[in-house]
Every structure is written in structure tokens, then in C-alpha cells.
Amino acid sequence: MDNNIVSELISSYVDAFYDEPDEDLxxxxxxxxxxxxxxxxxxxxxxxxxxxxxxxPERILEIGTAIGYSACFFAKTCGAHVTTIEKxxxxxxxxxxxxxxxxxxxxxxxVFGDAVxxxxxxNAARPPAGESGFDFIFIDAAKSHYREFWxxxxxxxxxxxxxxxxxxxxxxxxxxxxEEAEHKHRTSIRNMREFLQFVKxxxxxxxxxxxxxxxxxxxxxxxxxxxxxxKNDHEEDRTARSGGRS
Length: 246
Hints:
Elements: H1 8-15, H2 23-34, H3 42-55, E1 59-63, H4 69-78, E2 81-86, H5 89-101, E3 108-112, H6 115-125, E4 134-139, H7 146-153, E5 157-166, H8 183-201, E6 205-210, E7 216-221, H9 223-241
Parallel strand pairs: 1-2, 1-4, 2-3, 4-5
Antiparallel strand pairs: 5-7, 6-7
């Protein structure tokens, strides 16, 4: 699968170093690639494997299950409990079957539904002060909704959680000025550029953007800084509504 971020020559060279996780996942990757089902690219998978080995998360949240490849990869790589959300019924059913067949049913919980609605319910039910939050969150769904996913995911984070957003360079389109792109891509480009600028400037998130796979952003979340950020944001809102009166 060509990601158009680096040359085919470099991609082929790097892919030659790819370590297959296990036979079952390798077969599922072949199945997906033969049918053009989007799953995490090989170099992205290698990066995630190292991050998971270093962080050792216990609870993972994934937005965008597809056929269940990455959820099973997470569970097999670090033994974490994975909650993964998928809104397309056919993909959800395929993912459930794959999760069962790969022996991950005791570790992976697939949830069917629109991610925003599911995340809103999870926020309404979450324990106070972020107890039992997610250590690692992987966002790989509708690119135009990344900001909305982010805002709903951060309250679910444990302290020092990591949020990884995949495909943020959108086959290189994100680097294109919106007015220079085809009209059909302009809104997506504008939304993604605004999202990346937003996460880079957040005081509670330490973020880097890498040209791995189709582009990833990696953010480390400080829950204490997030709580302070929310407090200040609410105070500013109250001041604005009161017309500046204390």
C-alpha cells in the first residue's frame, strides 16, 4: 500500500526490516491488503510496537476497528485490555469474527456504534478524577472528526497517557495549501491542518508529528495540566458571559 509520503524505494527498503508479529496476524494483514482494506501500515506498526513495549499500557481505547487487525495487534503485543469502536456494521461483524479466531476475545471488546456517541456515553459513565482511565488511545477513523474525537478522548485518559492519531498527513494532502488542492479535498485538509496546530499548542499535551506510515501524531497527556487547562477555560467562559465583571 503506497502512502505517498516517502518514495517507493525507501518504503520498500524499510519494509524489508518488518518483523511479522505472528502467523495469524500476518495472514490477516495479507487478507486486508489483498482486498484493499485499510489497516495500520507496516512502519506504523513497528513504531507502535516500540511505544507499547516502553509504556506497557493496561487499558487501550481504539477509535476505528476496521477488521480488528490493530486491536488484536495491541492485545497480543502488550497484553492490554482493548476497547475498540466501529460504526460500520459489516466491518464490526468481521472484526468480531477475527478477534475470536485470533484468540483475543478475552482481551478485546469491540463496540458497535458511532464513535462520538459511544465516547459521549463513556464520558458520562467515567469514574471521577480519571480513575481507571485509558493508558493508550489510538485514533484511526474519519479524519475530519479528529478534533471531536480528541476532545472526547482526553477526559478518558489516565495520567501520562499516550494518544496516537494515524494518517494525519492523508497521503501528503495535509502538507498542501487548501486553496491549491482539489475542491473535494479542501475541507479535509483545512480540518486536519487546524487539528495538528491545535494539538501542538495544547499546554497539557506534549506532541510530535512524524512522517511514519501515512503520518502520525504522538501526544503524551498530563492529566494535572489538563485539569488546570479545563479550570482556566471555564473561568474564561464565565468571565466572558458576565461581560468581564468579577
